[in-house]
Amino acid sequence: MSGLETIPVTELKGVGSAVAEKLAKLNIYSLQDLIFHLPIRYQDRTKVVPIGRLRLGDEVVIEGDVIGCEVVMGKRRSLLCRVKDHSGTLILRFFHFTAGQKKQLESGKSIRCFGEVKRGSFGYEMFHPEYSLADEFTTTTESAQLTPTYPLTEGLTQIKMRSFCEQALERVTPYNVIEWLPESIRHQFQLPPLVDSIHYLHKPPAEADTELLASGKHPAQFRLSFEELLAHQLSLISKKQKAKLERAPIIEEEGAFLEKLIASLPFQPTKAQQRVFQEIMLDLSSGHPMLRLVQGDVGSGKTLVAAMSAATFIEKKRQVAIMAPTEILAEQHFNNFKQWFEPLGVEVAWLVGKLKGNARASQLESIANGSALIVVGTHALFQDSVHFKNLSLAIIDEQHRFGVHQRMALRAKGIDGKLQPHQLIMTATPIPRTLAMSAYADLDCSIIDELPPGRTPVTTIAVSDQRRHEVMERVKVACNDGKQAYWVCTLVEESEALQCQAAEDTAIRLSEALSELSIGLIHGRLKPQEKAEIMGQFKQGNIQLLVATTVIEVGVDVPNASLMVIENPERLGLAQLHQLRGRVGRGQAASHCVLLYKTPLSQHGKVRLGIIRETSDGFKIAEKDLEIRGPGELLGSRQTGLMEFKVADLQRDKAMLEQVQSAALLIHQSHHEHIEPLLSRWLPVQQDYLNV
Ligand code: ADP
Ligand code: MG
């Protein structure tokens, strides 16, 4: 007997091609899709409520006799029908009605209605209730179970959807909806049987705990979410294992080159940097491609770990690519790597989209003939025209912006058919644990959990922009005291052009008010040389106050800058604010960040600024960001397919992730034959991205 996933919805009564198209909008194609299309809430039609006991907002069934019916002309013409039972009377109000309806309702019959109790001009009313008429109602209830309310799309009604789901449910058997979770696992994690859970959720019994159901934490819901998250976890584990089967260059020794690099630094790597580097070395010696994510808070020194890893490849004359999500960040990496590696005689190539003509041709040449051992760039690196001689390590500064496919495209530029390059992924902001355990479970993860010494914590305060002049005064005092400051202008919703305009205007106003200071301006519309020139001036201390757009969010590193003013911080995401603030607190002086917000501040804005003020721990901030914005937005394009769940909700279900992880490992070890069916049940569109 074949599974319900093979039976198209068109087999159901009432589903023709037009309805099937509408169902497709909800990703419902088969009967299996219907049974996993769960209600969002439930109505209680199991009992008839006496009219005298109605409360405002109740959605209930009432029953009574029609005692009058008339058309009234108030603000809108409407049909009013008065219903009476032993405990009181209630008005039914219809704005749209037919003459036939009016006649029917005058009949003096008994009526049973379902609707929401609202306040009308004559006491409680129901607007457009569902109703049926009879001489007398014989059954005492309309339904023995709670009535499901399903997510819909335009052109479908609840009544139709209920009928489709009900028809699909009638065909469910243990043979066409197979229990793929082994008894031992169900027992260990207290999971009710699959088929029972499905029936329960579509038709809960009258006594079901509706509050528990509304919270999404009923055992039946837990069971389905668990299985779905488990399937995702299994797919990531399989992908990871498959990738590990490939061959990659072996690097067993750190080599003299790394020693030279470290010797040239004005500081020592921190313990955390060394530990993470050792984790990387272990991967590199395995003979299989590394797929490692390096996390660390702003300023924890991820770039150096990347450079140390690169050095071990340089030793072997193997090429390393560094890919950044934006040009300004790529430029920052380019400068860093040039500064570290050129004195050691290594050619560093540079490739971004706008590099054209001869300059581009010569870079492509160096990359192809292998004279450039380090190549820094943006996504321009994986264009077809780019050929590496022996790309062996791809370092990706991800910032949640690259999709899996882009990473894979770079990997495809690997050495030859047999050897794959290693991959090191750095995230610009920490990833909340929930996401690390789900969306990033295909990667091994290292955490740099220590900041370089000498950093001073940043004191953050929020000030209303009505006190702007005080803030300006503060900037003046700091700069006159030999310190440097940033003034960040933000306008996230509007265009980049507007943002630059705002920065220009602010720079003019500040120059007028603080005429004795030397003020610079930097934004995204400046040419790269202009930007470099201004950043250079700021670094040397010739510019005291730098007015900037959020282009300085990443990469910029000027230790003497110890004051940052952020305008309209209430409009930025938490991660972005944290990144921005990470530009100060890099030197010896006590640093300050002033959040110059616009009044009135929304409740949301208050909460967000409060979080930023209270903590400077990027991991905590990332957790809060996830709570506020949800996984979809946080991840951007990355693996969005992987984050679309039928029944699970990462935020709601995050507490079960650890159990899901251990269940996945158990199944991987002992029930391998269940993996494939679970994947095909929950991940119908297999994106086999590791084979791109
Ligand atoms: P992020 O992790 O945010 O990418 P970076 O790699 O940009 O951080 O490093 C931030 C700054 O810290 C840089 O100026 C870098 O040179 C410096 N740095 C990195 N490692 C150390 C260290 N071990 N000791 C002192 N400074 C360091
Ligand atoms: Mg960085």
TrEMBL record:
Q: Does the keyword DNA-binding apply?
A: yes
List the PROSITE patterns. Answer: HELICASE_ATP_BIND_1, HELICASE_CTER
Catalytic reaction(s) noted: Couples ATP hydrolysis with the unwinding of duplex DNA by translocating in the 3'-5' direction; ATP + H2O = ADP + phosphate + H(+)
Describe the function of this protein: Plays a critical role in recombination and DNA repair. Helps process Holliday junction intermediates to mature products by catalyzing branch migration. Has replication fork regression activity, unwinds stalled or blocked replication forks to make a HJ that can be resolved. Has a DNA unwinding activity characteristic of a DNA helicase with 3'-5' polarity.
* Single Gene Ontology MF annotation: hydrolase activity
Keyword terms of this UniProt record: ATP-binding, DNA damage, DNA recombination, DNA repair, DNA-binding, Helicase, Hydrolase, Isomerase, Nucleotide-binding
- What top-tier enzyme class does this entry carry? isomerase
List, for all copies, the residue spans of the domain called Helicase C-terminal. 481-627
Q: Write the gene name.
A: recG
Pfam families annotated for this entry?
DEAD (PF00270), Helicase_C (PF00271), RecG_dom3_C (PF19833), RecG_wedge (PF17191)
What family does the database annotate?
Answer: Belongs to the helicase family. RecG subfamily.
Q: What is this protein called?
A: ATP-dependent DNA helicase RecG
Residue ranges of the Helicase ATP-binding domain?
283-448
Show the PANTHER family listed in the entry: ATP-DEPENDENT DNA HELICASE HOMOLOG RECG, CHLOROPLASTIC (PTHR47964:SF1)
